[in-house]
Design brief:
The longest helix is centred in the C-terminal third of the chain and has 16 residues. The strands form three sheets. The protein has a three-stranded mixed sheet with strand order 1-2-3. Strands 4-5-6 form a three-stranded mixed sheet. The chain is built from eight helices and nine strands. Helix content is 32%, strand content 23%. It is elongated, with a radius of gyration of 25 Å. The protein has two domains: 137 residues, Roll (CBS-domain); 80 residues, Histidine-containing Protein, Chain: A, CATH 3.30.1340. By secondary structure, the protein is of the alpha/beta class. A hairpin with a 2-residue loop joins β7 and β8. α2 crosses α3.
């Protein structure tokens, strides 16, 4: 199956800042370009970190005094306090940056975002140079695929090329990403594989095989028990 690569979805013209960029320059960059975070790069355009609105707001929160004169956020850890006191991008940024490669699939990028609890991934080449950025919104673009495109991939790549099933024995319908397969299979045990492989096709929202019949129930055990 042809999983979409993130280099087809990512933003290539990425705004970045240098490590020695002052606090206010970083803030202006975020505001001017209407982004919530920017990669921090060195002189060779290698990514060394990411600075976000949250990183900048940490300074505001730390400087706000409580009514009793004590710091508003007294339990900041040492590393958080150091970032709050930073004045340059390299002192404010989160490092190392959570990065992906251009040839990663949408599924790989989505898994990393979930594991790292981030909303975007910086995309770098083999030498860690900045080539793009991909966000959660970009990844959701796979669900904008046309139904006909999804159907053709299921018929050609899943049913024919992978499972070696006779395409004329099955009917595939796709409506708003919801896949319904009907027809007749030689064995009942093939249904879970079809469901699993169709669900992995980019843009598929759900898969229904309730209208599939079969010739042999190969899932039964001895004695007729399932």
């Amino acid at each position: 199956m042809r999983h979409r690569r993130i280099d087809r979805l990512m933003t290539r013209e990425v705004v970045s800042v240098r490590g020695d960029s002052p606090f206010k320059e970083v803030a202006r960059t975020l505001s001017r370009h209407r982004v919530t975070a920017v990669p921090v790069v060195d002189g060779d355009d290698r990514v060394v970190g990411v600075v976000s609105e949250g990183d900048l707001l940490r300074k505001t929160a730390d400087q706000a005094a409580a009514p009793n004169g004590m710091p508003a956020v007294p339990d900041l850890e040492a590393w958080e306090r150091a970032k709050a006191e930073g004045t340059r991008a390299e002192e404010l940024m989160s490092a190392p940056a959570v990065c992906a490669r251009p040839d990663w699939t949408v599924a790989e990028a989505a898994r990393l975002m979930e594991v790292q609890s981030v909303k975007r991934l910086v995309v770098v080449d083999d030498e860690d140079r900045l080539v793009g950025i991909v966000s959660r919104r970009d990844l959701l673009g796979i669900y904008l695929r046309e139904d006909d495109d999804i159907r053709q991939e299921i018929v050609d790549d899943v049913l024919d090329a992978t499972l070696r099933l006779e395409p004329t024995a099955l009917a595939v319908e796709v409506h708003d990403g919801r896949v319904e397969i009907s027809g007749r299979l030689p064995f009942r045990g093939m249904i879970p594989a079809i469901e699993r492989m169709c669900a992995a096709v980019d843009g598929v929202v759900s898969v229904s095989c309730t209208r599939l019949a079969y010739d042999v129930d190969d899932t039964e055990r001895e004695g007729g028990r399932p």
